[in-house]
Specification:
Number of helices of chain A: 15
Number of helices of chain B: 12
Shape of chain A: globular
Order of helices and strands of chain B: HEEEHEEHEHHHEHEHEEHEHEEHEH
Largest sheet of chain B: 6 strands, mixed
Oligomer: heterodimer
Shape of chain B: elongated
């Protein structure tokens, strides 16, 4: 219909598959997020550590390149073993950057829809609450995946390609550790920040709340542990639970007394609580009792 | 007043309520609504708190029925909600938009969520915005729109995906007279186009009167009355409102008896005021003749028709207890 006709007409063309509609939300969100040049610059900085990792792995296998810097291959290999620890440190850096990304992006995901009463518009369409949450979650999951497990696994593959199958046989668990550690952090961080965005409509306050959940609770947990000489204060600290599970995945010593199984259970509990909080807020209309 | 259940044809009715009950926070809001409506534009009328918006929200699946169910074009809201939503457009009562998006991106996104591919959604977003009169403002952020423009953009997003049924919840809320008139003209145009059926919820009698052909009046979560305005208009049942003064005490009664003697249906609102329907063959001059014979002055004589206001006020006094 041409615009000049200005009359109403039903749409009877093809429809997109139902399963794919949640992907509309991230598409629009990415356009909004990357409008900010500051964020774009920061996001590019997030690739610095994987780039350095890539260079180090390359140098480790390129004696002539090392010779340019007057470094012997043996010394370099001894100083920089590509092991579980290497990837653990790398993921630690990326994990912190994930927090900063979520700090920027998450408060603008659900809160504006609630502030402008936009949810009835989404939910009056063939689009469920679960799809809405999944769509918003996908924004964070995609952004955080791009800076964690995807570059991590690419580095792992690059190292395998250069080092050979013997190295792969000894360190094959790194791939799983990268994948599982990244996803556990991405899920917890995304759900916590989405839940905060759903409950705190004002962006600056939502950011403060995000800092509170991750830092103030951790500080409180540490203080409690010190004061009472216990370990279970850590149960309220997302950082501690993540540290314990990551250390276990990357076969590193666990300096905190929390049992690994309990840490995994607690991460699951954090996720469930966040989903519950989201289920309360993500509704077309709230019923006042 | 006709029974809509009898007027239903072989095609499923637009809206079929079957003992629909909704409780919110433990309080009954809709109390066993039963009705079957097939009009092109169905009005939901009632005072604030009557349950109009709750009924719309239940039909949209925002609230679950406590008992009973409803069918829209034959599809059950309990089991086929997704299919129902795919052919429905909804314009909410309150402000509802995404402030940071431009008008065209907002409408396009909503059309995409309804299942339109991006290209078609873009095309139809532009068309809808031109159709409602926001063509020039379509690249501005929705947050910067005036109240009237926000109402129009809500209508545009409800239309963009080409629904078969449109829910309009208080569409003229907060509009100034010209904007209100524009909105009503749009609704009439949509209705007359014949491609979409409209359910209009309003507490404003004029809005419903101007746009709807069937009206369901709600009161305290129950159906107070149902009126087929289209049939009422076709029947064009007019009556006379008469005000008289007699020179002698009690002569009014004699005049009334004489008028009844002519075969007129007569109802007295007071000793000096009457409503009457003239039968075939009786004319107004007969009334003047009777008045002259009995020394009665006819002070006022008006042709009237049962307005929606009369129907509404009558319904507010009585009620059909949740069933039509």
């Amino acid at each position: 219909m041409a615009v000049y006709e200005q009359t109403y007409r039903r749409y009877q063309g093809a429809l997109t598959p139902t399963w794919s509609r949640f992907l509309i939300l991230p598409r629009y969100s990415f356009q909004e997020v990357f409008k900010s040049r500051i964020f774009l610059a920061f996001f590019l900085v997030c690739f610095l550590a994987p780039l350095v990792g890539l260079i180090l792995i390359y140098l480790r296998h390129n004696l002539s390149a090392l010779a340019l810097f007057n470094v012997s291959g043996e010394e370099f290999r001894e100083a920089l073993p590509i092991s579980y620890r290497f990837f653990h440190i790398g993921l630690g850096i990326q994990g912190f950057l994930c927090f900063v990304v979520a700090f920027f992006v998450a408060p603008a995901l659900v809160a504006p829809d609630l502030r402008n009463n936009g949810l009835p518009l989404y939910l009056s369409r063939p689009f469920s609450r679960a799809e809405y949450v999944l769509g918003k979650l996908t924004v964070l999951v995609a952004l955080l995946s791009v800076i964690t497990w995807i570059p991590g696994l690419l580095l792992f593959l690059f190292q395998t390609y250069l080092e050979g199958t013997t190295w792969l046989g000894q360190n094959g668990g790194i791939a799983w550790a990268l994948f599982a550690a990244s996803w556990s952090w991405i899920l917890v961080l995304s759900l916590v920040s989405l839940a905060i965005s759903a409950w705190v409509k004002w962006k600056p306050l939502a950011r403060v709340a995000l800092l509170g959940v991750f830092f103030i609770l951790s500080g409180f947990a540490k203080a409690l542990n010190e004061a009472r000489d216990i370990w279970w204060g850590n149960l309220v600290s997302v950082w501690s639970m993540i540290n314990v599970t990551w250390a276990a995945l990357f076969r590193q010593p666990i300096d905190d007394g929390t049992p690994v199984g309990i840490a995994w259970v607690m991460l699951g509990v954090f996720c469930l609580v966040c989903l519950w909080l989201l289920s309360i807020r993500v509704r077309a209309y709230e019923v006042i009792r | 007043m006709s029974n809509p259940i009898q007027t239903a044809t072989a095609t499923p009715p637009v809206l079929d309520l079957q003992g629909l009950e909704v409780k919110l926070g433990g309080r009954p809001i809709l109390k066993g609504l039963t009705a079957s409506l097939s009009g092109r534009c169905i009005g939901l009328l009632g005072p604030n708190g009557a349950g109009k918006t709750t009924l719309l929200h239940t039909l949209l699946g925002f609230y679950k029925p406590h008992a009973g169910t409803a069918r829209i074009f034959g599809r059950d809201i309990r089991t086929e909600l997704r299919a129902i939503r795919s052919f429905m457009g909804y314009m909410p009562e309150n402000d509802a938009f995404l402030a940071h998006l431009s008008g065209v991106r907002f409408v396009r996104m909503m059309a995409e969520l309804s299942g339109l591919p991006t290209e078609q959604a873009t095309e139809r977003a532009h068309e809808s915005l031109f159709y409602v009169g926001l063509g020039e403002a379509r690249y501005r952020p929705v947050g910067s729109y005036s109240l009237g423009m926000k109402q129009l953009v809500k209508l545009a997003q409800a239309l963009a995906h080409g629904p078969k049924l449109l829910f309009l919840d208080e569409p003229t809320n907060g509009l100034d007279p010209p904007a209100r008139q524009r909105m009503l003209e749009l609704i009439q145009d949509i209705r007359d186009n014949g491609e979409v059926q409209v359910i209009l919820s309003s507490h404003l009698l004029r809005d419903v009167d101007e746009c709807c052909d069937e009206v369901l009046v709600l009161k305290d979560g129950q159906i107070a009355t149902y009126t087929n305005l289209e049939e009422e208009r076709r029947a064009n049942r007019k009556f006379l409102e008469l005000e008289i003064r007699a020179e002698q005490e009690g002569e009014e009664g004699g005049f009334a008896a004489a008028v009844q003697g002519l075969g007129c249906e007569l109802a007295a609102s007071s000793r000096q005021r009457y409503k009457l329907v003239l039968p075939e063959g009786v004319e107004i001059r007969d009334l003047y003749r009777l008045a002259s014979e009995r020394q009665v002055q006819i002070r006022r004589l008006d042709y009237k028709r049962d307005s929606l206001e009369d129907i509404f006020l009558k319904a507010m006094e009585g009620g059909d207890h949740g069933r039509v």
